């Protein structure tokens, strides 16, 4: 979890080509992430030296018996159990040595591991400065613009989503520049709702923010708790704010600020408007009494037992909610504001990176390409992981099907705004604590924005 989707077949024909020239097409090449999105890549940047065609079975066979070291988050266990045998069957001379680590353990060890003499060939990182920024700045992971072009990722993924893995070469900012990673799945914050309660109110699932606010008012008038929320862990309120903010502030503005784009600011009238809307919700009793003393797990459990019409939470909450609320559990992506876009907190999953030190580069590239191959999207869906590729998948789980539709809408709208805590190495503590203070009425919206922007300014000035 972060507190913080035309099918590509892995090509077998051709050969592995290494070249000192730019990837084919240069700044005008179709599918080149550096040319297709000014938000995700610098259109003036040259593609890095590297592959110009997909890696071939022949090229990998020429490597002889090889062990490919792969480090991944423990949540990848079931996915790797399916994809690694597929990879080893395609390339019989390659043996994948998989190391799975818990999230916190992976985040604390992947940087020193990739900087060491026995670095893994492929490893997952994490968007933001603490991990990916450090890996990029220390030149520990290989640029992937050439790989994205060779494998045509832009035909299967929204190029606007490259930004979270695209960095200035020194790791000083992200959101544009060179692509260093990619993920085939997505997680995001949306709105769970109780179907029976909503039907009793004579309402359908809201699609716009105006409809959402009307539904909240109707629930309150009927004596129902409009939104179940527990914020003793401090981060859940940031997710609620992210959904509200997405209806007011253009998603690109938020991504630019989080990525450290020069001239960005959180001191924006639309951000203040969103803050004041959230405070009004709190003052009108749309959240439970004492919500700052209720844990996120308890809030999810209470919603699952029928307390509350809505719960704003991450897709990772679906399992627990589906288990308790069952057929009454529904889900929508963030309701759209005046722009018509569904926007709010969310991102792709942990990025897959190729070590800059690997001596098994063809196999490492082929491994990441297999993971990104949208032909495997159903594999992810079957494991209740939401594919990020632009394809069609199905599920027998009704709630998961709604999440897939919600993801398709948000991704098509380029609506994922990342996570506020990515903005600086200290932003998690600053943002969560200050938002809790704001909701308690101890500081104003202007105070909140000032504290947050000061942390951003200080961090960027010292990078």
Cα end-to-end separation: 27 Å
Q: What's the number of structural domains?
A: 2
The unreliable regions are 5-48
Beta strand count: 13
Radius of gyration: 22 Å
- State the CATH topology of the largest domain: D-Maltodextrin-Binding Protein, domain 2
CATH superfamily of the largest domain: Periplasmic binding protein-like II
Can you walk me through this structure?
With 463 residues, the chain is an alpha+beta fold. The protein has two domains: 18-183 and 349-392, Periplasmic binding protein-like II (D-Maltodextrin-Binding Protein, domain 2); 189-346 and 416-461, D-Maltodextrin-Binding Protein, domain 2. Helices cover 40% and strands 12% of the residues. It has 18 helices and 13 strands. The strands form four sheets. Strands 8, 9, 10, 11 and 13 form a five-stranded antiparallel β-sheet that branches. It has a four-stranded mixed β-sheet with strand order 4-3-5-12. A two-stranded antiparallel ribbon has the order 1-2. Helix 3 (77-90) links the parallel strand 3 (66-73) and strand 4. The longest helix is centred in the C-terminal third of the chain and has 17 residues, at 445-461. The radius of gyration is 22 Å and the shape is globular.
What's the helix and strand layout?
Blueprint: E1 18-19, H1 33-36, E2 50-51, H2 57-61, E3 66-73, H3 77-90, E4 94-101, H4 103-115, E5 122-124, H5 129-137, H6 145-150, E6 166-167, E7 178-179, E8 185-194, H7 195-200, H8 209-221, H9 235-246, H10 251-258, H11 269-283, H12 296-304, E9 310-314, H13 318-325, E10 329-332, E11 346-348, E12 352-354, H14 361-372, H15 377-382, E13 386-387, H16 398-412, H17 427-439, H18 445-461
Parallel strand pairs: 3-4, 3-5
Antiparallel strand pairs: 1-2, 5-12, 6-7, 8-9, 8-10, 8-11, 8-13
